[in-house]
Specification:
Bound molecules: xanthosine-5'-monophosphate
Distance between the termini: 45 Å
Strand content: 25-35%
Largest sheet: 9 strands, mixed
Strand order of the largest sheet: 2-1-3-4-9-8-7-5-6
Radius of gyration: 26 Å
Helix content: 25-40%
Number of helices: 14
Number of strands: 18
Length: 516
């Protein structure tokens, strides 16, 4: 029997920093999950099977407590006996719902601020008299509900932190999860360890044990196939599943024709060395035919997602496998809009792009709650080779979402050739070690150029390279011009159909990493 980890749930009131709170808690080896703000105590009780929920954090959010339809938590939480830490909007909401006084601030505070710690006790234990913090708020708490006491103030915020030690309810106007807050970590530590009494028992080692047990339990004696792409997520899922069900696992790599140069061979080679059953399904023409005339990115994803499943079903029928394993991770689910109150950004094909009717008995996603850096730790613990652990992510639909507009064989050839040059030059320079992803996009516009002494009218390749730690946000990489110059010269020299190369200088947000 594997121990249930202690956990803190973060109620999501819409803050852009909500995920940072969860990550900071996990970095302290305590499991954390983001849940919708209107979750009820009953729904939290349902977590009991897998987690010991020991505390709640109310995140910040863009609303004012006075907005019509501003998000509220279930008031029962305040009398439930569970420790609560409200951050920013969460802090204001606690004061407001318990009949304190919250007013629109006369001056909005945004950015670095200094707070005076009047009582360095409880969640503020270990903080100095004056601390540098990150603030971002309009509403301000002016009066506390009965039974509460103030702990800190700033120039514009008379009550910047409060507590009710008996009910174990706390509020912080600043953001301890943001790196600009110098002593954010001790506040989170105080809350999760001292107030909530969590044990730091969430480690990747314990995760592996639990995941192997779960895969074994859910697939049981039946066989499963893993949708293997060669990326770190599906490779880690494959290694976990192999540990759980041994040779009842078959890894299937679907070559839809939108893979990077040399990809199918690379994957086959690595996993066969591991003694896994590997099937490579060559289905280029099937996918190209289905995508003929399609220009809409979401439709491309849906069609590819559907066709993927059909190929897996056909193979599963042949070999008698009943379950499909996928390497879906937490950010895939978030961006596909799996939560009640989160916006759908794009339907990552391995999540929401799945067709409604599938033949499998079930889909098993053992990494569904992990962020990418956590997956990499698991991969290392499972002894996967470095080329896999540190492989740059590659989207399931592959180059199909890097060709703007209709996909043709010719366009696939061009983007593949350009992508190879981008990868070679960036890897040769060593810049790849700091990059999350680097690739080429066929921008879908033709422009005029001059090649030799003649006018040329050809394709535009966009080069994208980004830094990120989990793909939820990303910065375009400030690659030295010399490397970009080499890339551009090689692409225009070696691919005669290309007349222009541009570099994408947009962060995420407002862009996404992929162009479609
Ligand atoms: P975006 O473009 O949403 O990408 O900023 C975030 C990360 O997800 C990858 N990505 C996908 N992965 N199926 C996948 O398996 C998809 O449809 C998909 N779309 C984007 C992208 O490469 C980046 O790492």
């Amino acid at each position: 029997m594997i121990m249930k980890p202690d956990a803190i749930l973060v109620l999501d009131f819409g803050s852009q920093y909500c995920h940072l709170i969860g990550r900071r808690i996990r970095e302290l080896n305590v499991y954390s999950e983001i849940v919708p703000y209107d979750i009820t105590p009953m729904e939290i009780n349902a977590f009991d099977e897998k987690l010991n929920v020991k505390g709640l954090v109310f995140s910040g959010g863009p609303s004012s407590v006075y907005d019509k339809d501003s998000p509220r938590c279930d008031p029962k939480f305040f009398d439930w006996g569970i420790p609560i830490l409200g951050i920013c909007y969460g802090h204001q909401l606690i004061a407001y719902m318990l009949k304190g006084t919250v007013k629109p601030g006369t001056k909005k505070e945004y950015g670095i601020a200094y707070v005076n710690i009047d009582k360095p006790i409880d969640v503020l234990e270990g903080l100095g008299k004056r601390e540098r913090v990150w603030m971002s708020h309009g509403d301000t708490v002016y009066g506390l509900p009965q039974g509460f006491e103030p702990l800190a103030h700033s120039e514009n915020t008379p009550i910047a932190a409060f507590r009710n030690s008996e009910r174990r309810i706390y509020g912080l106007q600043w953001h301890p999860e943001v790196v600009h807050t110098e002593k954010g970590r001790p506040v989170i530590e105080n809350f999760i360890f001292k107030v909530c009494g969590c044990q730091p028992n969430w480690t990747m080692g314990s995760f592996i044990e639990k995941a192997v047990e779960e895969v074994g339990d859910s697939i049981g004696r039946s066989g499963g196939i893993i949708a293997l792409s060669g990326g770190v997520d599906s490779s880690t899922t494959a290694a976990l599943a192999a540990k759980a069900i041994g040779n009842k696992l078959t890894a299937v790599f679907v070559d839809h024709g939108f893979m990077r140069e040399g990809e199918p061979e690379f994957v086959k080679d690595i996993f066969q060395k591991y003694g896994m059953n590997v099937i490579i399904a060559h289905e280029k023409n099937r996918f190209l035919t289905k995508l003929r005339g399609i220009t809409d990115p979401e439709q491309k994803r849906k069609i590819i997602g559907e066709e993927f499943i059909r190929v897996f079903e056909e193979i599963a029928r042949k070999i008698g496998a009943e379950y499909l394993l996928q390497g879906t991770i937490y950010p895939d689910r978030i961006e596909s809009g799996f939560r009640k109150h989160s916006e759908k950004i794009k339907t990552h094909h391995n999540v929401a792009g799945l067709p409604v009717n599938i033949e499998f008995k079930g889909i098993v996603e053992p990494l569904r709650d992990l962020y990418k850096d956590e997956v990499r730790k698991v991969a290392e613990l499972l002894d996967l080779p470095k080329e896999i652990v540190w492989r740059q992510p590659f989207p399931g639909p592959g180059l199909a979402v890097r060709i703007i507009g209709e996909i043709t064989e010719e366009k696939v050839r061009l983007v593949k050739a350009a992508d190879k040059i981008v990868a070679e030059e960036i890897e040769k320079s060593g810049a790849n070690h700091d990059l999350w992803q680097y690739f080429a996009v066929l921008a879908g516009v033709k422009t005029t150029g001059v090649k030799g002494d003649s006018r040329a009218y050809g394709h535009t390749i966009a080069v994208r390279a980004v830094e990120s730690s989990e793909a939820m946000t990303a910065n375009f990489a400030k690659i030295p011009y010399e490397i970009l110059e080499k890339i551009s010269t090689r692409i225009t020299n070696e691919i005669s159909e290309v007349t222009r190369v541009v570099y994408d200088i947009t962060h995420k947000p407002p862009s996404t990493i992929e162009w479609e």
